[in-house]
Amino acid sequence: MRRWLAPPTPPAGLGLAAISYVVVDYLRHLSPTWHERLQPALWSILALIAVSRVPFYKHWSSEFRAAIPFVASMLFMLTCLLFEALSVRFVTAVLGLDWHSDTSPLPDTGQWLLLSLNEKLPETLVEILRARIIGLHHFLMLFMMLAFSVLFDSVEAPGLGLGARYMFTMAIGRLLRAITFVSTILPSARPWCAAARFRVPAYPHHWAQKYYVPYASDANAIRQIINQDIAYADTGEYLGDYQPDWGSMNFLINFLRPTPAEGASWYSLLKKAGGGCNDLLYSGHMLVAVLTAMAWTEAYGGCSSAFIWLLVMHSAQREIRERHHYTVDCVVAIYVGILLWKMTGFIWPAKDSMRSRRLAKLERIQSRLIQAAKDSDMDEVRELLKEVELGSQESQNKGHSKHLWLLLLLLVEYK
């Protein structure tokens, strides 16, 4: 009996498209000539197929309903990204470039493990682990492919609803990340990075000069400040910072510590912040990768989701191997991304939650439903179907009742 109630197997087209995209894009490292030929051809084929499906798309009403949450989620994400950029600049600038270049990286057992494996694994496997197969833009593009696959009924509509959930979850993750790394400033795994990328003062901000520097390396001074619970050291005169005229945004000067060479615009300065140089717990790249994998697994599933998770793991070990992040950054990003995606499911329910409740209710009453159908008691059939509809509290999609009638006919025919 259950064979009629089993969910349909998703078509393999989306998985093949995802694998093709990753393989063709990696050709840029193996054969740039073939990459230049195949990548435009692949995108043209995918775009033409997608456009050809637009006239036959049946879920425009649900897409329009999801448009407002989509725009709101996008604005929320942009706001969180602005806060993150401010925080990146602050943690880079507050201690000065001397601190970045003189402070040793933290000990990282994950880095040691990967170096040890390099000595034990076959050279071919090590080269695969070192290869730059997947990057941040790949995961973003894979999610775009997932969202647009609603045109082919590969995932449940609306695509804008899936995009809204993705951006909303991303925004929360980026906000939590900024709050985390701005709370305790950690040294970079690449000590030369800040001097090569940023033009911040070499000396610390006066906050650090007063509350951190006098007690940073002397154990007795640390013990004394714990006992007294007050900043007791005499720091003398503070070195003054450059003070541009930012008008109403002058309050940002103490946080961003601009230099004359960086121009008079606070916005232009933030655009240069990039991903920062000191360690930013947790990894933003890994958060994007995990959210893409979670969205893919929930919305599409199948063997291709396992492929996406393998790419996530490959990306994680590369982040550690190339010392863009410490191991803890990648580990925390993985479980935070999973938990955040699960949490936002309360706002954007999983694709089959309503259907699963209806089918569970239908299974409970199926014997009564079959008997009523065999007795040609259509009033009883209607009452039972109404009970299923009310029990699932689903009223948005009028096609659901048709699905229930179809299930009924299949059950009666099978009986």
UniProtKB/TrEMBL annotation:
Start and end residues of each Sphingomyelin synthase-like domain: 276-343
**How does the record classify its membrane topology?**
Multi-pass membrane protein
Q: State any single GO MF term.
A: ceramide cholinephosphotransferase activity
Localization of this protein: Membrane
Which superkingdom heads the taxonomic lineage of this protein's source?
Answer: Eukaryota
| Swiss-Prot/TrEMBL GO biological process terms | ceramide biosynthetic process
TM region positions:
66-86, 133-152, 164-189, 287-312, 332-350
InterPro entries this protein is in? Sphingomyelin_synth-like, Sphingomyelin_synth-like_dom
Which GO cellular component does the record give, naming just one?
Golgi membrane
A UniProt-annotated Pfam family: PAP2_C
Q: Which UniProt keywords apply?
A: Lipid metabolism, Membrane, Sphingolipid metabolism, Transferase, Transmembrane, Transmembrane helix
Say which family it is in: Belongs to the sphingomyelin synthase family.
- Tell me the protein's name: Uncharacterized protein LOC105139523
Organism listed in the record: Populus euphratica
GN (gene name): LOC105139523
